[in-house]
Amino acid sequence: MDKYRNYDISFSGVKQGKHEFEFCVEQRFFDLFEAEEEFENAKIVSKVLLEKHSTFLDFVISVSGTVDLTCDISNEKFQYPINNEIKFLVKFGEEYDDSNEEIITIPHHYSEFNIAQFIYEAVVLAIPMKKVSPAALENEEFQDLLDKFSPKINEEKADDEDIDPRWEALNKLRK
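User: That's the sequence. What structure does it adopt?
Assistant: Structure tokens below.
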């Protein structure tokens, strides 16, 4: 875990209450994770709010900045704004347990907590599944293709006659 050492937050000598930390995260941070990324040229500021209590630590990690994505339609690069926030608690116990993503247990003898994975996840989760550049949205040809091949969501039934007769009585009560 030495490569993530810069993202350790020491809480042993810190008084109870709120404490703020800030990390500037660039593309080399994401390269540490050795995962295939869907973005390049990351310029992210991560603000960490630690609220220390006697029996647990409350973390709020906010990330904001930009990454370069490749448009799924036009294959051109574009800059995408990143804004996300994740919250979790760290409590003390016998052994390390991160099976619950909202409550992490660390041993009592730990004096610091590494947040690199949480910063990474906050950024990656802010990236959309469908990456469409603003230029592609403005282009009529691309917009027609998007409309043609995008799934239709929340299509209402136009005909009330298609209703199962068993449900008609309930619909009358609702009206």
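The first strand starts at residue 8 and ends at 10.
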